[in-house]
């Protein structure tokens, strides 16, 4: 199976900060629904502040360590459990057992084994402004061509849920829960093939528009084909994997444009061929 992340669904937190050593501190938080709209604020009980979180052993809840101010001014530890999908909060009698990832060689009933969240860093520049960002990546420990997908362009503290059905990470003061959906590998590859076909049609149409604007002449094979044709497509990602195989020339010089291949886009198990008249054909490898 291949695991792909869906849209972020339930980010907890944001609110009054205090000088505590814990990484997450807030008095209330919001649950953002699957459609991106925030739900009503969920407030912690009176005199409590959030000071730490982790997945519970069964992976069903997110444990929240809070500090409650007593009448004498002292701080008492109180544990809560968040059901991020339902948006509910419950008080626990004691500290819940945290999730422990199986060690090497152990089996995992949770399904989280084989996944990890990796952090990298990079610089973004806009004019004279430079910012350091820390992208988060969901990776498969098995490796392979499709072993990595971007979770967040700038975040921290990424963790795989014990059940392997969600990722939690922090970004811009919020803790986001991104649900994961498992799909059969065959279905995943079919989606990639259909995307390649769609991109090929976009490129074919863009090439046809270019030819019309340039006196029925195809772009030269000088390495700048994408830069020349991309304005007609208005989607540079459509050219991912595009190979221009035509040496250039006029449309009139072709014996039959519908039988002349001018480019292709590779996909799992085959290639999408792009013809001079703009139509595309899938061909198995």
Give the helices and strands as they follow along the chain. Answer: EEEEEEEEEEEEEEEHEHEEEEE
CA radius of gyration is: 26 Å
Number of strands: 21
Per the principal axes of the C-alpha atoms, what is the gross shape?
Answer: elongated
Q: Major β-sheet, in short? A: 4 strands, antiparallel
User: How much of the polypeptide forms β-strand, as a percent range?
Assistant: 35-45%
Fraction of residues in H or I helices: 10-25%
Structural class by secondary-structure content: mainly beta
Quaternary state reads single chain
- Residue-averaged pLDDT, rounded? 80
Tell me the distance between the termini: 23 Å
Poorly predicted runs of 5 or more residues? 1-25, 105-111
Helix segment tally = 2
**Biggest β-sheet: strands ordered side by side in the sheet:** 1-15-14-13
Layout of secondary structure:
Elements: E1 2-5, E2 28-32, E3 38-43, E4 48-55, E5 62-69, E6 75-83, E7 88-91, E8 115-119, E9 122-126, E10 129-133, E11 136-140, E12 148-152, E13 156-160, E14 166-171, E15 174-183, H1 185-213, E16 217-218, H2 225-233, E17 242-244, E18 249-250, E19 261-267, E20 270-275, E21 280-284
Antiparallel strand pairs: 1-15, 2-3, 4-5, 5-6, 6-7, 8-11, 9-10, 11-12, 13-14, 14-15, 16-18, 17-19, 19-20, 20-21
Helix pairs in contact: 1-2
């Amino acid at each position: 199976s291949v695991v792909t992340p869906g849209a972020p669904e339930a980010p907890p937190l944001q609110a009054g900060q205090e000088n505590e050593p814990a990484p997450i501190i807030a008095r209330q938080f919001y649950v953002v629904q699957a459609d991106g709209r925030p739900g009503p604020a969920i407030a912690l009980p009176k005199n409590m502040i959030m000071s730490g979180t982790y997945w519970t052993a069964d992976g069903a809840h997110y444990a929240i360590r809070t500090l409650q101010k007593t009448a004498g001014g002292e701080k008492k530890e109180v544990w809560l459990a968040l059901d991020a999908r339902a948006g509910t909060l419950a008080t626990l009698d004691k500290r819940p057992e945290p999730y422990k990832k199986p060690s090497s060689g152990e089996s995992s009933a949770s399904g989280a084994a084989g996944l990890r969240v990796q952090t990298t860093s990079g610089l973004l520049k806009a004019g004279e402004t430079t910012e350091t960002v820390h992208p988060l990546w969901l990776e498969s420990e098995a490796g392979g061509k499709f072993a990595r997908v971007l979770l967040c362009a700038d975040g921290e503290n990424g963790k795989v849920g014990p059940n392997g059905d969600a990722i939690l990470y922090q970004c811009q003061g919020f803790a986001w829960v991104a649900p994961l959906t498992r799909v059969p590998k065959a279905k995943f590859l079919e989606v990639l093939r259909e995307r390649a076909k769609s991109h090929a049609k976009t490129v074919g149409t863009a090439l046809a528009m270019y030819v019309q604007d340039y006196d029925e002449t195809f772009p030269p094979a000088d390495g700048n084909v994408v830069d020349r044709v991309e304005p007609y497509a208005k989607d540079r990602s459509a050219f991912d994997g595009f190979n221009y195989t035509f040496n250039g020339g006029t449309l009139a010089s072709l014996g039959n444009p519908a039988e002349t291949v001018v480019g292709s886009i590779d996909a799992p198990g085959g290639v999408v061929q792009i013809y001079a008249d703009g139509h595309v054909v899938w061909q198995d490898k």
